Amino acid sequence: GLVPGLLNLGNTCFMNSLLQGLSSCPSFIKWLEEFTAQYKTEQNQSTEHQYLSLTLLHLLRALSCQEVTEDDVLDASCLLEVLRIYRWQISSFEEQDAHELFHVLTSSLEDERDRQPRVTHLFDVHSLEQPEITQKQISCRTRGSLPPMSNRWKSQHPFHGRLTSNMVCKHCEHQSPVRYDNFDSLSLSIPAAMWGRPMTLDHCLHHFISSESVKDVVCDNCTKIQAEGTLNGQSIENQRTTFVKQLKLGKLPQCLCIHLQRLSWSNQGTPLKRHEHVQFNEFLIMDIYKYHITIHKSSQNDLNQKNSEETKPGTKDGIAVKPPDAEQTCGTKSLLMNGACSTSFLMPSGTFPLTAFPEYSSPVYLYRLMAVVVHHGDMHSGHFVTYRRSPPSSKNPLSVSSQWLWISDDTVRKASLQEVLSSSAYLLFYERVHSRVQHQSLELRAEE
């Protein structure tokens, strides 16, 4: 039930801990397998070591026991070598950060994806100048037929998500167009702790999406209203008002990486590390942080007329009830949901206490914890270790193991779920769990 360890090449615990965490995410390994499928058809196999995706896939498969290896300790120096080919100069003898390396890997994979597919040359001038070469030989020298152009968004890695930024004028309530930004991990700051209340992951998530006021912003709608009320010929200055800005999650990824920012600064400007424990659960519900497109009033009135004949769930006296916003839902119930470590909520591994939260009996965005990266030490020196799940058995490769492992470079031992949840997490790796209803809907879409 154990996995291979990784050799410390000199302060490479940052890389070893991240690789162990990534190897516990089956969706990421599956994506790498599909991503690297085209390399198997290429004639030149000697250049495989130059691809980051192939190097990463071989390491993760070995760490997840999908490839047979006789070594109990593996050497991951090949990853640093291929990153140098990608022009990343990462010294193994200096203090590095696991979260920064995660960004390096995802951005390098995106660069490699942007170079795909390798479009075949339609004309080979050198071959055409030689009349004795047949058409078949020309086809071989031009690497065969033209490969299909894949959709760019279909090849996005499983950690890819999108944030929404919503701006609303406080004066005229005009909403600016929603802005979308990509992310590969959610970097959450730890808010100031309240006396007598434990810090939970929901506190950090709610603080991340909490609205903020942005002053002195030009409002085109207020300027337009002001111009309509003035006489012709008068110059109108741009109206500056205060906007309310709020972040939400427009697209949630299949694999969710959460980074807890433990770096803070003293009044003297020196870096400090925050050691407080942030409570998190084995399961994570992200429904309340998801951005939903607002329904126009006309569409809402049509919906009210359809529901006026009878009262249905989600309605009151025939009028559609607006779902609670994240600020309201995050008040009491949700803050106990994601991060509650009360003994009444400690369940056997692999189960989720949905009965404790009837309003979330069927969450759409439910995630299961797969790995936790922990940093011991201060801001100047320390050590990274990883808690991760043991690979599933060969009899049931699609199952999720309930056995946890503690890994420090080449040292591997078993751990309990309680030990994992009691750790001071730095990186959290979650993977989305699809319910039976969602699986059925996906199958219906596939049939259609």
TrEMBL record:
It holds the Pfam family UCH. GO terms for cellular component: cytosol; nucleus. Residues 300-324 are annotated as: Disordered. Its EC number is 3.4.19.12. Keywords: Hydrolase, Protease, Thiol protease, Ubl conjugation pathway. PROSITE patterns: USP_1 (PS00972), USP_2 (PS00973), USP_3 (PS50235). GO terms for molecular function: cysteine-type deubiquitinase activity. The keyword DNA repair does not apply. It catalyses: Thiol-dependent hydrolysis of ester, thioester, amide, peptide and isopeptide bonds formed by the C-terminal Gly of ubiquitin (a 76-residue protein attached to proteins as an intracellular targeting signal). Residues 4-433 form the USP domain. GO terms for biological process: protein deubiquitination; proteolysis. Belongs to the peptidase C19 family. This is Ubiquitin carboxyl-terminal hydrolase. It comes from Chauna torquata (Southern screamer). The lineage of its organism: Eukaryota, Metazoa, Chordata, Craniata, Vertebrata. The gene is Usp30.
